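All the exercises in this workshop are built on plain-text protein records. Instead of coordinates, the fold is spelled out as a row of discrete tokens. Once this layout is familiar, the rest of the handout is easier to follow. The record below serves as our worked example for the rest of this section.
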Amino acid sequence: MELKNKKHIAIILILISGVLFGIIAGIFLAITHDLPQIQSLETFRPSAVTRIYSADKELLAELYLEKRDPVPLKSIPHYLKTALIATEDKNFYKHSGVDLKGILRAILKDVLARKFLEGASTITQQLAKTLFLTSEKSIMRKIKEAFLAFQLERRYTKDEILGLYLNQIYFGSGAYGVESAAQTFFGKPVKDLSLAECALIAAMPKAPSRYSPLVNKNLAVKRRNIVLKQMANSGMITEDAYKKSAIEPVSLGKQNKKQIKAPYFVEYIKKNLEETLGSSRLYKGGLTVNTTLLFELQKAAEKAVENGLYALETRMKQQRIMDTNPQGALIALNVQSGGILAMAGGRDFDESPFNRATSARRQPGSAFKPVVYAHAIEQGFPQNRIILDAPVVFKGGKNGEDWQPENFSGKYNGEMTLRMALTLSENIPAVRLMETLGPSSVAEFGYNLGIESTLAPNLSLALGTSETTLIELTSAYAVFPNMGESIKPFGIMEVLDREDRIIQQAKPEQRLSMSRAGAAIITNMLCGVVQEGTGKKASVLKRSVAGKTGTTNNYRDALFIGFSPSIAAGAWVGQDNFTTLGKGETGAKAALPIWMEFMKKTLENSRCQYFDIPDDVVQVRIDPLTGRIASDDSRQAVSALFKKGTEPKK
């Protein structure tokens, strides 16, 4: 009987043990089934700051969701590591990831207070929570945190855990990780921090928004000195070092409130990178983006637009125009590569981020005429060809009505050369030329030069009635000094990952869009606009420059697009609501001064260059009115280029 009872007791104990084991196993599985795999740390890369630089190494912008600059543990001062340990986890190198005494003490306090008061998290637990869990305050989260901490300690060394922690933790004022904190608060790399500065940074994780020296310097100093005292009490520093550091004044780094430079350009770059790399990699990847922008030219562009708009707004008020909010834009391109050298998309990015250099579609007015004349040159028309400047009526205009274009001046010159017609920007000759060439043919030629906006194939296209963007029109003009090669504007030279490996590199797109001879001849004609015509103000630059003015109906838009042998630049002014700039505000008056101020800056320190004259082109002195060879004593003679065999004979 006794033996039988013992067997029953044994069976009952086994059953109870099985139930308890099942309960414990169930609890374990419930806690751990959804825990992340620690193996993911093998490839873990903390979010890091992406930086955008100009070609002359000026930092333009920092992009991040969390401002973090990971650094190796060896670059972090010993004092900062010990200060963090002293204030966050003094037994860090002794425990196995969890401080059991600390947890029991914290649980007792929480139970007595009937709420979650104290966490008792070790550095390893804090890292586990930051990497894998939420900030929810609950017993279940604390248990999961402990399990993860044990796994971290089994897989990684203490130094590896500490290094991850120091690069991951939040220090306030948008700074994640010790390097970002050092730069944010003291304007220096973490490796250069003093003992006092290390202690101040180590003091912040406990309450970042409260202890940040940018928020409350006095409170930050008090908290710093507590950390220094803890270090002294633990034997991490001497008493003399504590006393000396405790009286050290806090010298904060200069806070750059307007962090983004060339904001319109930066937004343009960001949009391109988001399309190619994705937002996550852009804002978390710690990339280095090297661009084509030259910061000195960018400053000149922004200043020129600012000055030009101030002068224009003053004139508008003098005309008593009620709506006076003119906007301006300027884009500059490297003629040979298409690299964007400067970009001003408006007068103030903070007030209006809309980029008028790349996104605004406006009528170019007479600034489109060079496209018509360039196509004529390609079709074999010499620049001394005679065309009639006289009133004309074209049948089948808009709504079936006849169309009678007029010259801007209201006057007519009779017979004149193509060169003179372009120089004076007369409308009638341009429309007659368009009729001869065919609107569809001219539109196709415009696309070939690089214009992407739709060009309506009608006669009024000669007067710039089809809307384009400033960057398109400027890139089209760049074909002329670039010996007939069209260029695709771009802003990114290369993108490097955080290991400085190239992940994206510029591949400039160029193709032959017109003959080298034709490009040289239209350039020569546009030099005439600057020397003798509507762009004559620019002749004061005393350099090889060419270009064309543009003005739209009712003075709604004013443009000047021009170039030197190496830089093509376009300037535009207008109002976003398409209202007038005021009577007389032509491209020559409102836009050309902006272009001139910018180009003066670009040319002042550069060597003198000359436009290309290819071997199959000859230079002849002609009378610009008649197109005939000029006499030796003619004062109005100009040097004109012709394809060999088409030049005028004596």
Remarks:
- The CA atoms of residues 232 and 240 lie 9 Å apart.
- The two ends are 143 Å apart (CA to CA).
- Residues 24-33 have pLDDT under 50 and may be disordered.
